[in-house]
């Protein structure tokens, strides 16, 4: 069978399989409903942890975090306790647009691709992108972005002030993203376009309760946003030719957030983490610390020789890991178990870039979300947010070949292979 | 050598450092970013910065301490940013030039602007700097030759925002010291034109500067010279806190109580010049609130003296010393009065109490403040004094030293041309500089006054002092009159009643000699403390 001529990948960050099914069936997302008839929609497993930096990095490289080296949005600078934020230069495996430079790409808003680097085509990077000037390649397109009022993301601090502001920001941000894509398509020939909507994740974090509760004041606004997303999908798909391929996916799912659990506060309370008073951030980690947590749920042993105040010796690791596994496994909140599973590094990561891999990764039970803010002392807390990530990502592939191409129980590591299979190159 | 130096700012971090470019906040729980500059966000989310000096670090959390960071080097005044780019507004002035040399000698890259208004205003009075000073061109040359310092200078009026902004963009300062104001109370009281000129230059100049800082260098701290006189001298005797009430300051009214903690303390300025400083305070306070600028507002006591190691290194490096009734501060004028054989003139009973600080101590304070910058959005105040003295007590010290140098003198109590109490309580809190910035005063009035006599009795300087004798005596009344005040009383030094009240200075340290002004009387060749 001949491969697809062009390939469009639409990402809906944080949109769970069950939500897509539900909204398609209820007529909130009619375009999606129509597309489901033409292909395969299935659940997909995200990375562990199920956070966008790791999941999208896996999607665009097709390899395990042990190969691409990204385990979260942040890392400690080598030999220090200084928290650095991931950027694209730290990705250690090539992306699909770097692997085959003969094709032309339009890449819009993929998280963790900042700063923008050379691409045959166009890229504007996604969360986290601190400086729009460095978020676009070729740089000459900056004026176009400014002309259409392009925004990388909603401003969370502004949108926290009111749901009305949140929904209007979400809508405007989505509009400018579509506008950009259509403008680029009118100017560039392309072989692969990857278009990611991150508002789906933001609205989930802020207003998941509104989705669940029909009587919630913002229930209709929530649904309307996904209708808007559906219209954007419709606009993009309507411009595809008969022989163009379509993949839609998310990087993780979303569910109700009930309780936030601060892993570092827990480690402090149990004596595994000691902090210098008056110091800021992770640099407050004091002598005698055995372990600490990085977002979202990574546990690192404070190894001697690896960190300036590291004290865990080689021979002590196994026992300490056992201890910590038990410590987290027994954590309860009002009689409810908090941690669903504690993974060891070797269980989930393989590859040649394990130097930044965490020793343990925790997966929470339903309703619980992990935080790691090191200055906070309360282990359990409530949030103004009502949505948290879960492992229920979705994958959609259009076309007759979808049944063959989509494996059973796919994971985000399979996406690149699926793309290649569709293109048959 | 460095092992002997303690560092008050070793644990400060990138959060205080002007090289840290704020790039917003990341809220991982909401997977979102924000560029809002909100204190709440700073507590709830991770701050994202980029270091202008170390771009290889990428984006990171501002937690590297000064001690850990290779860009900060240990000096006798604490850690100082290596080659720190400091811009001084008013660099030609009494304090500006002195500080420029001090910072340059410490390795800072010094730049500055001046429009030479001070030189012109002193000339307007018919006076000159009694210490001869070189032209700016010669000063710059001498700084290079003698001290190896390269200073970047532009002749700019701070009201010319375009020129000032262009210079700021060129230099990219990491601290801005604002000495560029007209510093004279009597000058501001001469007439409407002078009052308006002082307020316009000072207030509008500072306001324009704040907008420039917002747009060009929002992470650069503003080290702003205010004045202790902003507070006035409340007759209730309540303490003069450091600009902001502490949490345990309570307001009681009709059986109810409120904490005043965090509120700006009342201001009661004592001239139109002092009013301009109060206006500056409010403008800066607002700018820090709206734009996350950062500032130290320095409520400096009365400055006096001639000496730092740098200005003494060469005659061409000397800083100006004004003694006319507009620009001369009281101790400086007393010394010249004594040298001229004139009486030392105090106003009324002469028991006005003020905070005082010698030039060298003031410069140390400035370096300590510059080296320990405030946090984003922080407006902080320091009461910058070494000691509290009644004017008459300082007259006594000058008279004592004058006698040692062979210049016996008398003290005249004159009608007070100012509107102020000449007897009043005075209690000052000055704990920030000692406790947070490691400052300890080193220069007593007697030490500095002795240095002044040593310099000013040199023949060529004495000649200059004689030339300005006619402008030393006060003639500017706060009421608007122009006349010499009448003599109320003539007293011999050593026989002056200093009153019963003793001012109180809270430094947070153990009580030391500068907490009170204790004078020694010479009795039969020996010195005895007053009882």
From the structure above, extract its key features.
heterodimer, A: 425 residues, alpha/beta, Alkaline Phosphatase, subunit A, Gyrase A, domain 2, 2 domains, eight-stranded mixed beta sheet, four-stranded antiparallel beta sheet, 21 strands, 33% helix, B: 531 residues, Rossmann fold, seven-stranded parallel beta sheet, 14 helices, 30% helix, disordered C terminus
Task: Describe the 3D structure.
Chain A has 425 residues and is of the alpha/beta class. Chain A folds into two domains: 288 residues, Alkaline Phosphatase, subunit A, CATH 3.40.720.10; 123 residues, 2-Layer Sandwich (Gyrase A, domain 2). Chain A is built from 15 helices and 21 strands. In chain A, the strands form six sheets. In chain A, strands 2-21-9-1-8-5-6-7 form an eight-stranded mixed beta sheet, sandwiched between helices. In chain A, a hairpin with a 2-residue loop joins strand 14 and strand 15. In chain A, helix 8 runs antiparallel to helix 9 and helix 8 packs parallel to helix 10. The model of chain A has no long low-confidence stretch (mean pLDDT 96). Chain B is an alpha/beta fold and 531 residues long. Chain B folds into two domains: 74 residues, no CATH class; 447 residues, NAD(P)-binding Rossmann-like Domain (Rossmann fold). Chain B is built from 14 helices and 25 strands. A seven-stranded parallel beta sheet of chain B has the order 9-8-7-10-11-14-18, sandwiched between helices. Chain B has a four-stranded antiparallel beta sheet with strand order 2-1-3-4. In chain B, strands 15-17-19 form a three-stranded mixed beta sheet. In chain B, helix 5 runs parallel beside helix 7, helix 9 crosses helix 13 and helix 11 packs across helix 13. The relative contact order of chain B is 0.12. Chains A and B meet through strand 4, helix 7 and helix 9 of A and strand 1, strand 2, helix 1, strand 3 and strand 4 of B.
């Amino acid at each position: 069978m001949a491969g697809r001529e062009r390939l469009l990948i639409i990402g809906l960050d944080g949109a769970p399989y069950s939500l897509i099914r539900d909204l398609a069936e209820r007529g909130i997302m009619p375009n999606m409903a129509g597309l489901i008839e033409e292909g395969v929609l299935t659940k997909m497993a995200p990375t562990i942890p199920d956070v966008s930096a790791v999941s999208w990095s896996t999607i665009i490289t097709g390899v395990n975090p042990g190969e691409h080296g990204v385990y979260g949005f942040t890392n400690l600078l080598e030999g220090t306790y200084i928290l650095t934020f991931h950027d694209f230069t730290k990705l250690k495996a090539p992306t699909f647009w770097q692997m085959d430079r003969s094709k032309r790409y339009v890449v819009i808003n993929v998280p963790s691709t900042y700063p923008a680097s050379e691409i045959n085509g166009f890229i504007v990077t996604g969360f986290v992108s601190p400086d729009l000037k460095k978020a676009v390649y070729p740089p000459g397109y900056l004026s176009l972005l400014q002309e259409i009022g392009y925004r990388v993301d909603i401003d969370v601090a502004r949108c926290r002030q009111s749901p009305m502001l949140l929904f209007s920001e979400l809508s405007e941000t989505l509009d400018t993203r579509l506008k950009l894509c259509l403008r680029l398509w009118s100017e560039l020939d392309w072989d692969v376009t990857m278009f990611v909507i991150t508002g789906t994740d933001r609205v989930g974090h802020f207003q998941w309760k509104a989705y669940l509760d029909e009587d919630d004041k913002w229930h209709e606004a929530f649904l309307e946003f996904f209708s808007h997303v559906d219209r954007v999908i419709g606009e993009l798909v309507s411009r595809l030719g008969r022989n163009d391929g379509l993949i839609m996916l998310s990087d993780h799912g979303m569910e109700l957030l009930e309780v936030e659990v601060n892993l570092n506060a827990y480690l402090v309370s149990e004596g595994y983490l000691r902090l210098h008073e008056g110091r800021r951030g992770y640099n407050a980690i004091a002598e005698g610390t055995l372990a600490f947590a990085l977002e979202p749920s990574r546990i690192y042993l404070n190894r001697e020789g690896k960190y300036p105040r590291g004290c865990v010796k080689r021979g002590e690791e196994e026992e300490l890991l056992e201890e910590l596994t038990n410590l987290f496994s027994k954590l309860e909140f009002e009689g409810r178990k908090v941690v669903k599973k504690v993974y060891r590094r070797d269980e989930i990561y393989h590859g040649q870039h394990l130097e930044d891999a965490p020793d343990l990764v925790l997966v929470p039970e339903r309703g619980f979300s992990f935080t790691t803010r090191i200055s906070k002392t309360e282990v359990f807390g409530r949030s103004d947010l009502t949505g948290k990530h879960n492992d229920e990502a979705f994958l959609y592939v259009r076309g007759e070949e979808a049944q063959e191409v989509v494996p059973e129980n796919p994971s985000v590591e399979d996406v690149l292979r699926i793309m290649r299979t569709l293109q048959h190159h | 050598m460095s092992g002997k130096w303690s560092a008050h700012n070793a644990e400060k971090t990138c959060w205080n450092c002007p090289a840290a470019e704020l790039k917003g906040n990341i809220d991982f729980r909401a997977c979102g970013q924000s560029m809002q500059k909100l204190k709440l966000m700073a507590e709830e989310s991770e701050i994202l910065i980029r270091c202008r000096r170390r771009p290889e670090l990428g984006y990171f959390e501002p937690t590297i301490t000064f001690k850990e960071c290779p860009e900060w080097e240990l000096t006798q005044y604490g850690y100082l940013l290596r080659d720190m780019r400091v811009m001084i507004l008013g660099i030609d002035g009494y304090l500006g030039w002195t500080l420029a040399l001090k910072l340059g000698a410490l390795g800072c890259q010094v730049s500055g602007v001046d429009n030479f208004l001070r030189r012109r205003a002193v000339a307007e009075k018919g006076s000159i700097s009694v210490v001869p000073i070189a032209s700016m061109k010669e000063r710059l040359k001498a700084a290079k030759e003698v001290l190896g310092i390269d200073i970047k200078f532009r002749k700019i009026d701070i009201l010319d925002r375009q020129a000032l902004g262009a210079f700021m963009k060129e230099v990219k300062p990491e601290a801005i010291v604002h000495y560029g104001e007209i510093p004279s109370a009597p000058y501001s009281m001469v007439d409407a034109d002078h009052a308006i000129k002082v307020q316009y230059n000072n207030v509008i100049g500072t306001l324009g500067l704040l907008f420039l800082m917002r747009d060009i260098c929002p992470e650069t701290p503003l080290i702003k010279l205010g004045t202790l006189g902003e507070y006035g001298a409340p007759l209730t005797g309540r303490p003069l806190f450091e600009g902001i009430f502490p949490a345990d300051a309570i307001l009681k009214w009709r059986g109810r109580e409120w904490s005043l903690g965090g509120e700006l303390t009342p201001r009661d300025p004592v001239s139109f010049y002092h009013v301009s400083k109060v206006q500056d305070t409010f403008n800066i306070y607002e700018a820090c609130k709206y734009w996350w600028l950062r500032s130290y507002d320095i409520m400096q006591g009365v400055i006096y003296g001639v000496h730092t190691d740098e200005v003494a290194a060469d005659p061409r490096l000397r800083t100006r010393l004004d003694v006319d009734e507009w620009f001369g501060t009281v101790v400086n004028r007393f010394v010249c009065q004594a040298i001229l054989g004139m009486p030392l003139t105090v106003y009324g009973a002469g028991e006005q109490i003020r905070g005082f600080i010698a030039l060298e101590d003031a410069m140390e304070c400035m370096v300590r403040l510059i080296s320990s910058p405030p946090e984003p959005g922080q407006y902080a105040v320091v009461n910058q004094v070494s000691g509290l003295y009644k004017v008459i007590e300082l007259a006594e010290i000058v008279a004592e030293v004058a006698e040692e140098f062979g210049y016996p003198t008398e003290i005249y109590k004159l009608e007070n041309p100012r509107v102020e109490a000449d007897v009043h309580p005075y209690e000052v809190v000055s704990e920030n500089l000692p406790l947070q910035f490691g400052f300890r005063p080193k220069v007593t009035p007697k030490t500095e006054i002795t240095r002044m006599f040593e310099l000013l009795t040199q023949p060529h300087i004495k000649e200059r002092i004689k030339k300005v004798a006619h402008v030393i005596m006060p003639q500017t009344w706060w009421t608007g009159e122009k006349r010499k005040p009448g003599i109320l009383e003539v007293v011999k030094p050593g026989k002056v009643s200093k009153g019963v009240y003793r001012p109180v200075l809270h430094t947070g340290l153990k009580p030391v000699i500068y907490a009170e002004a204790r004078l020694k009387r010479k009795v039969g060749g020996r010195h005895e403390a007053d009882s």
